[in-house]
Automatic annotation (TrEMBL):
The keyword Thylakoid does not apply. It comes from Vitis vinifera. Residues 116-139 are annotated as: Disordered. This is Transcription factor MYB13. PROSITE patterns: HTH_MYB (PS51294), MYB_LIKE (PS50090). The keyword Transcription applies. It holds the Pfam family Myb_DNA-binding. PANTHER family: MYB FAMILY TRANSCRIPTION FACTOR, TRANSCRIPTION FACTOR MYB15.
Amino acid sequence: MARSPCCDKMGLKKGPWTPEEDKILVAHVQKHGHGNWRALPKQAGLLRCGKSCRLRWVNYLRPDIKRGNFSREEEDAIIDLHEKLGNRWSAIAARLPGRTDNEIKNVWHTNLKKRLKKKLATPNSKGHSTAAASKCDSGSACQSEPVNLNFPGKISSQPSSSEFSSITDSPIRNMEIHMNTGIKDEQMDSLESFPEIHESFWSDALSSDNSSMPSAFHTVNDESQLQFPLSPADALEVGYGHSSRIDDGMEFWYDVFIRAGGLQELN
DNA sequence: AATGCGAACAACCGCTCGTTG
DNA sequence: GCAACGAGCGGTTGTTCGCAT
């Protein structure tokens, strides 16, 4: 397929954007939108290619962009999501409001990779992130290996309870799903449809003393009672109770909750 | 003060995918 | 079915900045 010349065209500017260019681009997008990036620079009077304009807008000028350092929660979420999705930065960014794929990619390469390596080097590290992360480190593969999916978010694939094997402490967290062929397309699709977090989930969840754990979840007395797939009631009962894993973030809980049909309960 | 080096981030490049004629 | 095109994605590079020497 023939490639478009894009920025190679003579006369088009490259390199860092000036405040003036930013102003022009913002003003133009606010006034006319960005239906056609290729035509935009000409219309706006910018000596840039459409690709460059799009990138500048998406990664820097968009009004909903959250600037500043990543919180610990955001970093943990990135690690978890990277474990599930691999190097699919845009998919990860979609789960982190206000953050761009480029930003996440940069943070991953500069911070989080190192953090994971450190965790790996620590004998008592949690380990749940590191093994998979190291497999995925070089790219989006994460396939053709037994995958520790970290959580049974693939409940949609309706595994039998025998496919899960409880390993250590958390009733859900450490269930392993061994699959012969790794993550399948439909499972990735399932991850893609990760729902927006329902407002009332947060208000309920954060009413807990520990802001990282939904109050809606209580430790079950007998973890072996858990049956998969979980009913909404079971999901509400599923406990965690292991403070060392508190930093693992909320989205896991929400996913379990939603997949168990908990949203209807909230509504 | 000058220099070297690494971290962080912005931007570019090349590719794939989806759409359209 | 095919080619052309635009948009989007992920990998990579270039630049800037802060810190150590």
